[in-house]
Amino acid sequence: MTKDTAPKNASKAAGGWGALKAVGRHLMGSGKPVSGGLSLLKANQPDGFDCPGCAWGDPEHGSSFEFCENGVKAVAWEATRARATPAFFAKHTVSELRSWTDYDLEHEGRLTHPMRYNVEKDIYEEVSWETAFTEIAAYLNALDNPNQAEFYTSGRASNEAAFMYQMFVRLFGTNNFPDCSNMCHEASGVALGAAIGIGKGTVRLEDFEAADAIFVVGQNPGTNHPRMLADLRAATERGARVVVFNTLKEKGLKRFADPQNKREMLTGGSEKTSTDYYCPRLGGDMAAFRGMAKAVFAAEAAAQAAGKPAVIDHAFIAEHCAGFDKYQATVNATSWDQIENQSGLTRAALEEAADIYMAADKVITTWAMGITQHRHSVATIREIANFMFLRGNIGRAGAGLCPVRGHSNVQGDRTVGINEKAPSALIDAMERELGVTLPRGPGHNVLHAIGAMMSGEARAFVGLGGNFARATPDSPLIAKAMQGLDLTVHVATKLNHGHLLTGKHAYLLPCLGRTEIDRNSKGLRQIVTVEDSMSMVHGSGGINLPASKELKSEVAIVAGIAKATLGNDVVDWDALGDDNDKIRDLIARVLPIFGNFNQDVRKPRGFRLRNGASHREWHTATKRANFDASPLPEATEWQEAQSNDAEFVLQTLRSHDQYNTTIYGMDDRYRGVFGTRDVVFMHPDDIAQIGRKAGDLVDIIGAHQGETPRVAQGFKLMAYDIPRGCVAGYYPELNVLVPHTSFGDESFTPASKAVPVTFRPSDPHE
Ligand SMILES: Nc1nc2c(c(=O)[nH]1)N[C@H]1C(S)=C(S)[C@@H](COP(=O)(O)OP(=O)(O)OC[C@H]3O[C@@H](n4cnc5c(=O)[nH]c(N)nc54)[C@H](O)[C@@H]3O)O[C@H]1N2
Ligand SMILES: Nc1nc2c(c(=O)[nH]1)N[C@H]1C(S)=C(S)[C@@H](COP(=O)(O)OP(=O)(O)OC[C@H]3O[C@@H](n4cnc5c(=O)[nH]c(N)nc54)[C@H](O)[C@@H]3O)O[C@H]1N2
Ligand SMILES: [Mo]
After folding, report:
1. Ligand 1 midpoint to CA 668 (Å)
2. Which of 164, 226, 345, 376 could form a disulfide with 558 if both were Cys (CB 3.0 to 4.6 A apart)?
3. Contact at 8 Å (CB) between 276 and 242?
4. What does the CA dihedral 238, 43, 403, 511 come to, rounded to 10 degrees?
5. What is the pLDDT of residue 259?
6. Ligand 2 lined by 105 (C-beta under 6 Å)
7. Of all residues in the chain, what percent are helix, strand and coil, respectively (each to 5)?
8. Which protein residue's CA is at the shortest distance from atom 32 of ligand 2?
9. Cβ 540 under 6 angstroms from ligand 2
């Protein structure tokens, strides 16, 4: 690797004073004070709300003050005092607002009233809840068939809201459930389902205290899961190895100063969050893990020859696994040349990493979007599982697989039925419970929904949260398709671009946020539940007053639309919509793993859903943990780009000042970016090679245009420590470059970490 080329003013360690200053700025807001101070004391506390920031687990011992800088931003974002009222909408046409940035739209604050689009005047106008529900129902019922509607879910929806939503949609007659997970950890679900019989991780938070080595792969916890940094740091402090594989040198993964540690703050000290750092090429991780597996097999052969104890856990493999011999043959058949070329790491480096793995008795591997948003993501995650099986690193304390989820309840939403591939056990149980027949065929995921909207097959879109057209690839194409629909409905807390892509009829329905007090018709406070990345289910109750008296809970909104569309005969929507305990009772009847749901969720830290693989029970077809013998991809995007002159591979990722499509600010301080998001990170030698200097403006051009030109104009080149031929820039601005036609095998996740691009000097007139 080259020496560190991050700009001089980039902060040295994640956390610390920089984090506290950022927290202060966000609590003060931009002249708009927030009620965040009190809220924070209750974030991830037993009697408070679940932090809407990320899906990292909470400690069992509930005394610690579990929040982080970016959790603060998420809370302050929701608790702002700014309001986007009907008076605001009266002043601005929807066409005008469409030209605003998401940053400006969201800064208008919380939505306060249900709104309906007036096509003649091109504005959103206030409408009563009852009228909105009745009209939406009429439009839905007027469709030729239920499959013409797409029902999107973003991962902040609670278990209760998501369960109600899937029940409504299935009773309405479709399995069209595109959800944010399709763009996120879908590959983890698919790969782990096949490998270990459950599409979730196997570890608990306590396992991080016991692990001897933690491999952190394709993930930037310093920004996206900051509470995880404390666990990594504690691990390095007690001598465990934290081994990072990341195409970028991420500050938070190097050092972390704890804002809650006074001595450290005064002395400016910081502790390591990793001990070993490898920078593979984009999409090179499958090769890297295969290389490490090759080293493990070589060490095993050497141990056998020398009569030493085995390196491989043969007892685990014999008792629990299938497919080992075939896998070993594939590993043997993979050449070091191909491994080095795809990964960009040397054989020596991979052997060194494998030594760390073999010296550790207990190993955890974690990963996120750097692994899941490639064409061969499923095969890569299978290879990670293979590697972990070799030494029985699953289903015992301190060891296991840990896909670190994104949205705070994205895992729970899937558990309670947001799934376009209707799981038969769920459908059977729902049919028994409700006494009806439900659709079983597969519905639409995000890419199918996009296809159906573009072809005109889809006529209606309902979004439970999220910012569909901004989060999806090819955002301009999707925006156009959404505007051709007959009906668009959005349930949301704040205004975003997606809400302005109005169909012929459009509704914007404002809901309570997680930090807000939710009272039912009897005045009783309601709690909701969420599931974190460790299969722990927690209760969450708001503590702030609602942003407006008109707001309804997501549960009540779903119940309102459902009752108006389907009537109250099969399901008593009124009763369920008014009492979350009743929804939980129903969930537990349909999904017995929830056990004594209402009772257990009121325990201080909630309860853990049964996770077979973490007890070495394998609910796979073979009833075993399955090795996968896939060969390496014939060529990674990087290799393809190398053979096409002047091509680079672009990854689109998050800055430190954003939550997905929500932009909090224009800084990315760990990467030394201030006051702008229109940057592209490139190796200094590559900058020279394209004949430019750091600071120059360039246009980024999608390399395989076909019929759709894809161009992002006016991006500043930043010299960065990144492998040659690989570049990086921010999502969602660069989604104009991500083709909806390039996606993961089996996962259908847009390949937003592997976009082939070329560069030209910026030309604003083109
Ligand atoms: N504050 C904040 N928190 C968040 C979010 C947010 O936007 N803001 N989003 C939430 C959501 S929905 C999600 S899914 C998670 C996302 O969490 P992350 O997955 O951490 O998100 P990204 O910013 O996409 O970062 C991807 C990381 O993988 C690395 N990477 C990219 N490609 C490769 C590769 O091919 N190989 C390797 N080894 N590394 C690679 C990148 O350099 C980067 O460090 O965070 C959640 N938490
Ligand atoms: N190029 C590229 N594209 C990507 C990614 C990438 O890394 N690169 N990442 C992908 C990933 S991992 C994900 S998860 C998706 C995210 O896709 P989405 O989940 O669709 O997007 P978000 O930006 O999280 O949604 C933000 C909106 O949610 C609404 N909202 C916030 N809180 C609440 C609430 O409590 N209730 C309701 N009803 N609404 C609420 C607000 O109106 C806010 O504007 O984007 C994907 N797209
Ligand atoms: Mo995500």
Report:
1. 14
2. 164
3. yes
4. -170
5. 57
6. no
7. 40, 20, 45
8. 493
9. no
Cα distance between residue 739 and residue 703, in whole Å: 10
Residues whose CB is less than 8 angstroms from the CB of residue 227 and which lie 6 or more positions away in sequence, other chains included: 54, 56, 66, 67, 68, 71
Instruction: Name 743's bridge partners.
Output: 750
Residue 246 phi/psi, 5° resolution? -150, 135
- Ranking 23-27, 175-179, 241-245, 746-750 by mean pLDDT, the lowest is 23-27
Distance 218 CA to ligand 3 centre (A): 13
Sheet strands side by side (includes 487-492): 123-126, 115-118, 505-510, 487-492, 460-464, 149-153
- Half-sphere CA count of 665, side-chain side, radius 13 A: 19
Residue 648 main-chain phi, psi, to 5 deg? -125, 165
**Ligand 1 contact via 702 beta carbon (within 6 Å):** no
* Residues shown for the chain: 766
Confidence (pLDDT) at 605: 79
Contact status, residue 45 vs residue 62, Cβ threshold 8 Å:
yes
Cα separations (Å) of 245 from 109, 278, 437, 651?
A: 39, 5, 48, 15
Helices 377-390 and 285-305 sit at what angle, rounded to 10 degrees? 20
Question: Residues with Cβ < 8 Å from 521, sequence gap 6 or more?
Answer: 578
For the stretch 515-557, pLDDT in tens is 899 999 999 999 999 999 999 998 888 888 999 999 999 999 9
DSSP assignment of 735-750, as one string? GGGS-TT-B-TTT--B
